[in-house]
Amino acid sequence: MADYNRSSSGGWKPVLDPTDNKTIIGHHWRRHDYVPGEEALALQTLDMWIPISPAALSYGKPTPNTLLGDGAKAPWLIYIHGGAWRDPVIDSSSFNASATKILSDLAQQPLEQRKKTVAGIASINYRLSPYPNHPTHPSNDPYDPNRTAKHPDHIADVLTALGFLRNYFGMKEYVLAGHSCGATLALQACMSPERWGLAGTAEWRAGWYNVAKPKAVVGFNGLYDLAGFIADPPKGYERWKEAYREFVVGAFGKKEEDWKKVCPGSIAEGWVREWNLTQQQQGEEGKKRKVVLVQSLEDSLVPVEQTEGMAEYLERESQKVADEDKKVEVVVLREEKGGDHDEVWKKGERLGEILLGVLNGEI
Ligand SMILES: Nc1ccccc1C(=O)C[C@H](N)C(=O)O
């Protein structure tokens, strides 16, 4: 269950191998504030995990050298949770099972390989939109800033969290993954932040949103074209039309034209050219951006058409980009036995396996 009260005891805690309950496979920091200054809200926090190293074992926690020396050389893995921009029961802790799976697989790799695979892992909380009819945690305080967010607050928080990891943990390169609306947010993070009307705000001027874009995005059971779904839900999903409309209005307001302008699969003028990489990123091998779209064929809430439409959009838009290096490589994984909408993160096995595959360059 989400307790969205901030935990009082910060700091690195050892993570034990679930198979023997005694081997330390990494360290976890729960709910670290990511907002500069003192105004961080309970949901402006992130969870971090660092893979184990001999130095961290003897020091008792990740050393400054692990974090800032070696740490800056390998990519980070960042996860954005789902929950239709509003569900307080789904938060950063929904990555616990997957993070544990990844740390445990990494612990089996030789140290040199592990160091190159991933520097650190993070799972981001962000402010949520109102959910007055939530069965157990209704948002009935109209002044709770954690539960009264509206677009672009969600994406602004995600960008702030990425900037925090760059500024304080030396993050340079990262793979950005998301589930459901987290997948929407992951692709929004590849676009120009000027789209969200953030330019000119005090936070913008202070450089909060000025962060390098990911080289790869991985979307699980993602929402990519909400206006399309609501106008014409695929067969078998018609019963969710009003539920979708409710959460879309809660997050983006009442106007259909606004929904089209925020969803990665429905933005009329293609956004692929906005996905810039830094000089440093371009200098490395594998210049192409990559999007891996994973969809369970057993998902009762999100139809596979969302993923198919997103893949077609990216392929079409990539063709319009002349520069070979600026095209997007698209991989679609249709999971026959992928379970229902939330199963993939609840179990964590397959989610972790796919993300490690992307980090290792096997996917
Ligand atoms: N109906 C959906 C359709 C698509 C994607 C998510 C949902 C959700 O219901 C998410 C969340 N558990 C919620 O209660 O809002």
How many DSSP-defined strands? 9
How many independent structural domains? Answer: 1
Please list the strands of the largest sheet in the order they lie side by side: 1-2-3-5-4-6-7-8-9
CATH homologous superfamily descriptor = Alpha/Beta hydrolase fold, catalytic domain
Structural class: alpha/beta
Mean pLDDT: 93
Order of helices and strands: EEEHHEHHEHEHHEHHHHEHEHH
Give the termini separation: 32 Å
- Return residue spans where pLDDT drops below 50 for at least 5 consecutive residues: 1-8
Task: Please describe the biggest sheet, giving its number of strands, its sense, and whether it closes into a barrel.
Answer: 9 strands, mixed
Radius of gyration: 19 Å
What global shape is seen?
globular
CATH class: Alpha Beta
The name of the CATH topology is Rossmann fold
Portion of residues in helices? Answer: 25-40%
* Number of helices, counting only DSSP H or I runs of 4 residues or more: 14
So, CATH architecture? 3-Layer(aba) Sandwich
Give the amount of beta strand, in percent. 15-25%
Which cofactors or ions or other ligands sit in this model?
Answer: (2S)-2-amino-4-(2-aminophenyl)-4-oxobutanoic acid
Brief description of this entry?
By secondary structure, the chain is an alpha/beta fold. It has helices at 54-59, 64-69, 96-108, 111-117, 153-169, 181-188, 202-205, 226-231, 241-252, 256-262, 279-283, 304-320, 343-347, 349-360, and strands at 12-16, 24-33, 45-51, 76-80, 120-124, 174-179, 216-220, 289-296, 328-335.
